[in-house]
């Protein structure tokens, strides 16, 4: 409360005499004070809890300062000027930054810096991860150097990989398994053999490399084999070029120059080929000058045009060379080629003998350049695949005049784009039909397809959809008929089922299925009719069954002597009345009838039982009489 009183007294203080002297004449002290300050003073005098604002202000300032210290990152170490006192975290950061440069010394130095830290080091997990990444990079570079033949550098890089790295075992395997000394000697011997065109010795080194037993040298042997094949091809081309040049004629010399120019720069004989080219080109120019002196300008120009790609800068100032190179550029048939050809031709002076020919070629190439520009612009418009794009493209292509070489290409593009334009016009109608078919409205979809003419671009697509939807429509129409026929057949009404299924005409979607069921039901109906036509025998007229074999002996009456078989009996045996009297049918005899006198039944008449064939005549054994 005492502080509040002091505060209020300070606010109510009366201005001093000096303040009154400074105030303007005619104004009071109250009027000299700003009205805003008076308002603030009144509010502060009315507020009595202002002393509690001071702790809150101090706490807020402290919190903001601490947050700034926590959020602002500490300054990064200066890796270019490492000091004697540097933390391990700074060393790891500097090593990582050095490895990011990608050069081998930086990566090796980074591995040496953090690769020897113990496992109990606080930063060992991060250092281990970085060392594994750097070691893997060194292993990849070492493999590349080995493939290029830099064995010493590859060996040095492999030895830089520390023992704690994940790729250490692979590096050691590569060091021990590649057999660097022997394989390097073989590779050097093969290189020397290639320079001497000793193909047999080079192929022998390939065989010996394969026998080293490691995957690396097998790969190197395969690469060396491919290189030997390329060197042989280059040598054959050079020999063929020299054979052509030996004829010492203009055309053969020009062909020899172009054949030798095709030898790749990495071939061993490339330098020899370039030397031969430099020796043959002046001879070709001699023949060109002879043709020019004889008045054959076109022949001389055609000869220079053949060797134009092989001419260096020293020949570019000759008008005949300029025109020949221009013709070679224009022969590419591209916009850039025509531009360069026109620029070259315009360099020929008016006093040169080739100036008239150059002007004629210039007019031709300018027209062809315009044609190519029209076609290029038309192709760009057609790539939009829109209706307006195709229309503008066709208009551009039609600007190519008749009789120009590009007219045929323009006509072909116009026909193609007109076809695409018709496709764009026909697609909405086809999409409408597809939408109806997706809603199972096949009849309406088929009606939409009828609007397509026979020569429509999408005629094949329309025909496929028409066949598919026609089959589905026929299946929808005929499926109830076939289901009703199947239901009648299950109820036993086969005739009605057959008549119902016959309503499905031939060529319909379900005709094959209906025909198969008609055949099945017809067979079942015929079987039923045969069963109904056959009479059912009475229970006492059942067909005789073969006698059951029992263990009791079969006895015959004493009065009946054994019958002697005869040929007639063997052919058609008949029961004799002397055998035994026919027993009276009783339930007992009916159950077990005797085969000697079977009772005739209708079934026996319809399907007689086969008569057993009697054995040949033999002396019958006497039957024991009980």
Give a short synopsis of this structure:
64% of the residues lie in helices and 0% in strands. It has 28 helices and no strands. Helix 13 (215-245) runs antiparallel to helix 14, helix 21 runs antiparallel to helix 22 (442-449) and helix 23 packs antiparallel against helix 24.
List keywords for this structure.
28 helices, 64% helix, 626 residues, mainly alpha
H/E element string? Answer: HHHHHHHHHHHHHHHHHHHHHHHHHHHH
Major sheet size, sense and barrel closure: none
* Residue-averaged pLDDT: 74
Low-confidence regions: 13-23, 25-33, 548-626
Q: Please state the CA-atom Rg, rounded to the nearest Å.
A: 57 Å
Q: Helicity level, as a percent range?
A: 55-70%
Oligomer: single chain
Q: What is the terminal separation in angstroms? A: 155 Å
SSE map:
Elements: H1 2-11, H2 17-22, H3 29-32, H4 35-46, H5 53-71, H6 88-100, H7 104-114, H8 124-147, H9 151-159, H10 168-177, H11 180-195, H12 199-210, H13 215-245, H14 250-261, H15 270-293, H16 297-306, H17 319-330, H18 335-345, H19 355-382, H20 387-397, H21 407-438, H22 442-449, H23 459-490, H24 494-501, H25 511-533, H26 567-571, H27 587-591, H28 602-606
Helix pairs in contact: 6-7, 7-8, 8-9, 11-12, 11-13, 12-13, 13-14, 13-15, 14-15, 15-16, 16-17, 17-18, 18-19, 19-20, 19-21, 20-21, 21-22, 22-23, 23-24, 24-25
